[in-house]
């Protein structure tokens, strides 16, 4: 499976989950909805691993790192993003979450010793600038009220936890811990962390037996969690956390295209200019990686 396939389908799936998340907010507490999502995803992944006969035995040390990845990538970071969307528009949360690009570059250098190249930084700045242009109406109306500041902090904290989870996934793959089984156990650990925390803080375990809630829950568990994370983390293992994080620039653009079809979103001059910058930033990074790979292959 090519890196471009992994890249494109990760963007398309996660770009559509922004709309699905809207149907999860309301009656059921966000933490409980995330718990349901990753519990369902873990059960389905375990069933898949059983049918395919995949290795499911790992050492205690490997389970420790898998559990830590689950804590960072499949639990509290998603809860924080859901909370951020309660206080801010999805566009602003998308812009905040795109900061994971810079977080991955810095954390990758700090924790894994990954190199930092000028094209990567330039591509990141170009892409984030484009994303800011697309969502400029929302950014310009941002007021530093208590609720807005709270939403920003929730979103930023969620992005940072996800970045650490990205770096940990890269580390686990370097130690030959397979992606599918890691995701199965990691999502189970993540759901357990949220379950225990929900009980400790007294969250109500409600459920909404409606078609929109149930279908969005299955969509987020199967495509948004199992398939998309499998594709993304495989891509991350191949090209590094810093470059894989560029999918976060295109995801909000795909979300806006879907919003155009289903919610009547209208594109402006700022939006089209921003889209061009986002695409240019992605091209810079992917082209830089291709050039480095070709240089390595030269005798």
Describe the structure.
- It is a single chain.
- This protein is mainly alpha-helical and 299 residues long.
- The chain is built from 14 helices and no strands.
- Helix 1 runs antiparallel to helix 11 (211-239) and helix 2 (30-52) packs across helix 11.
- Residues 290-299 have low confidence and may be disordered.
Percentage of residues assigned to helices: over 70%
Global outline: globular
The arrangement of helices and strands along the chain is HHHHHHHHHHHHHH
Give the CA-CA distance, first to last residue. Answer: 26 Å
Structural class: mainly alpha
Please report the total strand number as a whole number. 0
Poorly predicted sequence stretches spanning 5 or more consecutive residues: 290-299
Radius of gyration, Cα only, in angstroms?
19 Å
Number of domains: 1
How much β-strand is present in the residues?
A: under 5%
Work out the helix count.
14
Mean pLDDT: 83
Biggest sheet: strands, sense, closure? none
